Amino acid sequence: MAPDYGLPAATASASAPPDDTTERIPLTLMATTDVHGHVLDWDYFQDAPFPADDALGLTRTATAIDEVRAERGAESVVVLDNGDAIQGTPLTYYYGMGDGAPSVLADEVEHPMATAFDAIGYDAQVVGNHEYNYGLDLLSAYEEDLDAPLLGANVVDAATGEPYHEPYTLIEREIGGESVTIGVLGLVTPGVRVWDRGIVEGVLEFRDVVETAEEWVPVVEEQADVVVVLAHTGKGTTPDADYDRTALTEDAARNIATMVPGIDVVVGGHSHNDEPQEVVENVAGEPVLITQPNYWARSVSQVDLSLVADGDGFRVDWSDEAAPTVTPRYGTDGLAESTAVADAVRDAHDTTVAYVDTPVATSTEELLTETSRYEDTPIIEFIGEVQADTVDAALEGTEYAGLPVVSQASPFSRTARFPQGEVTIRDLAGLYIYENTLLGVVLTGREIDDYLEYSARYYVQTPEGAEFDPENGTNAVYPDAPEGVPDYAYDVLTGLDYTIDVSQDLGERVSDLRHPDGTPVGDDECFVLAVNNYRQSGGSDYPHVAEAPVVYDDRLEIRQLLVDWASERGVIDPADFFTENWTLTTEPAEAPTPTPTPTPTGEPSPEPTDAPTPGPRETEPPGPEERQPLVPTDGSTAAVAAVAAIAVVAGAGLLVTRRARRRV
Fold first, then answer.
1. What CA–CA distance (Å, rounded) separates 394 from 38?
2. What is the pLDDT of residues 279-329, one digit of tens each?
3. 315 lies in a domain?
4. 9 belongs to a structural domain
5. What distance lies between CA 156 and its chain's CA centroid?
6. Structural domain boundaries, residue 310
7. Coil, helix or strand for 322?
8. How many domains does the chain divide into?
9. Lowest-confidence region among 141-155, 396-410, 649-663
10. Which residues contact 2 (CB under 8 A, 6 or more apart)?
11. Are residues 36 and 168 in the same domain?
12. Which pLDDT score is estimated for 591?
């Protein structure tokens, strides 16, 4: 028996099925998700429209919406967006963090995404996790520019305990002479608390989406004829019986639909999957429709409902002849771009094009990312060099100045390139497509090795001695990565030399981890890892890094650091920074002959014994509530311990500065 959720007496399961004479009221929901700044069908990185077989953008979405409004009547069409709108293209970067942001914050310029949504006539939106990337002030400015309410029921003000955004909205419509109320509740994946911790920690709390839906759906249902949940969360696969409310599950749209009675339609997103229609049954035995449109406005879900009288209001008709249907409308279906929406954002678009066309440096040769996922390339090491330079300079004069700085980078794009000759902001933005910021954390040699072993799971195991196949040898599939480990979840490190043997089992692939001068890396040596905020906050579940002491965090955006570095030097020459420091192989290395390691006193270390190799740390890393955002510099225990570790390593003569490997 379903628990009592305080539902109205008249529910779909308690009502008599309609007969052939029943009058039905048509209602259409049009929904987008994960637009990520794609208003026009324009690739700012290629300075051209997207290919014809991949047409996209809100300008095409607008055409589909206009067609449905003309066919069914504007009053019977409700338009919704499911979040992640204001991050993802140079357009949104320019007005979110670039030169256009101050004008948006000062209310001198309307945010171009708000302009586009308002021109189309959206009725409600929910915050996505990327809405927080540019800070709460920018988010507030965007929200003020929107005509539609921006929802987020599970986002709570840490100081007051009250919802930070509007939890829900009620949309009133007159359809066929009848008054119909559509209630829309908004929920966002609670992963924001991790991914944008530096922005929201101590300010906002993100509650479990199922728990929040259980609280608010009855409130909405009591006032509405139709209940829609905008859930910026992936569908999820966890059985309801095993759902852990304390885990703040990232992907839970299906759990919301099945565990919380009273919902008619759930709009999912976040996972960037194209899943137009799924019908599930909730705990009360009622059907619920889930739709997830394609990302980047590649499609809009057209959800056609029929409503029938139910007491003093209406309910969704689930009889065979009138059950809800979803028609995904794709940009490739011949939809033309809406000139009205294109004209509305034309000035912002032209400003963005001029911005990305700005020259910043000259490259001495063409640099490509095409092979960066399986071989060391200068263009990826360029990212590592800029990050390491930035952190290295910031640590000068601190107790961490003597530590070697290593740097992580991922092959975000397989098509990015620096042409020989003029390099523009467009070229740099195409290389680094995310608005990540830079941090520095302290890791030991053993932890660096663990980090690299985890990264090496990206490769498909290849028979020993066989030729590695780049087409099929990457993006390995695991239960936690059924679609394959994505390129952005694979890291290479600069500042240390190592080999990845893809013929070996997981956890045994990284070998010959050394300093640039050939000195083996010791387990207890300390390093500073220059790392982006997504990875440092736990993105892709790399070991150690989320718990590691933070010694640098100036909140500088990495893409802008690349632009500044290139602008200051004027020339990008691989000879200045690139040395091949990692290789991929299928040939196991021969066991090295142990050599004496100098001790702090300069004496050789004792001969190896049969004592067991030290294992992982015996103590558990601190939990999130124990971790301090920065390593103290006031002589506290953590700082003293770090400095002591530095002293031991320095005495061993093992510190090799990163600059020593540069060919300048």
1. 36
2. 999 999 999 999 999 999 999 999 999 999 999 999 999 999 999 999 999
3. yes
4. no
5. 21
6. 23-352
7. coil
8. 2
9. 649-663
10. 261, 283, 284, 285
11. yes
12. 60
